[in-house]
Amino acid sequence: MLTRICLSLAFVVAMPVWSQVEPSATGPPPSSEEDMRTPPPVSGESYPTATGSETRSNYLRAGLAVNTAYDDNVLGGDSTTPVGDITYSIMPTIALDQTISRLHQTLTYSPGFTLYRRTSGLNAMNQNATVGFQYRLSPHARISLYDSFVQTSNVFEQPYGGVSGSTQSPTEAVVAPYADQLNNAASGQLSYQFSRNGMIGGSGTSTMLKYPNPAQASGLSSNSNSRGGSAFYNLRLSSTQYIGVTYQYSRMLASLANAPSETQVHTINSFYTLYLKSTLSLSVSGGPQHFDVVQSPLPASGSWTPAVTASIGWQRSHTNFAASYSRTVSGAGGLVGAFQSESANANASWQLARTWTAGSAASYTTQKNVLPAFFSSTQGGHSVSGTVSVQHPISEQFTAGFGYSRIHQSYGGIAVISENPDSDRVFVSISYQFARPLGR
Fold first, then answer.
1. What is the C-alpha to C-alpha distance for residues 310 and 160, in angstroms, rounded to an integer?
2. Is 180 left (phi over 0), alpha (psi -120 to 50) or beta?
3. Domains of the chain
4. What is the Cα–Cα distance from 175 to 159, expressed in whole angstroms?
5. For position 12, what pLDDT does the model report?
6. Half-sphere exposure of 309 toward its Cβ, with a 13 Å CA cutoff?
7. Residues 6+ away with beta carbon under 8 Å from 414
8. Quick one: which of 440, 49, 44 has its CA closest to 234?
């Protein structure tokens, strides 16, 4: 991962600064009547979360955030009685967001240090890094690459992944809130508009979740990974309506107590997207899904099931809202086996006044083992999480924030959370940031 970051930094420095174009987090809007959009079901991108002036690009930013928080359950399943503690975090950040004539590139890196007042054995270093490129190969061909790496021992310190309308978005798995973990997700997509109203494309994804200290994640796979690819056909019915079809393949691996699990899933989806306005879109997709599961020492098994995804995105100058729902079969992500997953996610932000911004995020996921009779120790369960926060700038460079987060998980067969399934956190932060415009 460090090698990829260094190469990406070298690429960023080497690129010249050309003309500037305002970017869009869900893909660039058509520059002419000939250009097509890439609808959310196949774009692979999250809906925007920033409001107002936060959406500016062509800036190099650096900053430092200092947080203090009270967590009421820092030991999780290691204790039969919840143990609360106060944490202190220091997180410097450097970020680049640049748009030039054919390229939009983003880079963010944030190392961090978290100290615990009472349970000092949990003191740890965290790292978050993301690299993204969107490049126009020709007037009608685009390629995008993205990589995200997280090293953390506190799930509350992880960046929120956002809401996506993509049928390839991974389902959030059960988490060990205070276990050391490494998480990496990489993806790439190529699209080509071959006619006025026709587009084809393909993509690939790779994810990895690893718990370096398995004792901190008892009942979860210490090393899970997935690989996959997809192809799509996108047809424009009108300037506001798109339909299409996608084929997806994914292979997910996990292991627990020397019992490896492999899940392969094939999905064919039809999708429809309606752009009610330039700032409001609705998307739905669905189709048959076939999965095969091999879980040692059990016999192989497979079946057909329907898959469904729906999403909405609404972006205004002072308000952003995005929500999604999906029903699919998935594996890995810390769980061993194949699970029928249903998840709902929502994200909203409001610029209440010129100097006040509020935000919220919520997620609900259920996981049901598709082979319950064979592997009763991991039948599945559900999780609920949410965050509300408020930010207020103190000066041009300093911003204060405070908020509340909660996670509830119910998975009877997973020791690390079965004893104490709830975690609550109240936090206060002070951050300093300066920005330097690029190419101006």
1. 20
2. beta
3. 2-437 (2.40.160)
4. 14
5. 33
6. 27
7. 77, 174, 218, 219, 220, 378, 381
8. 44
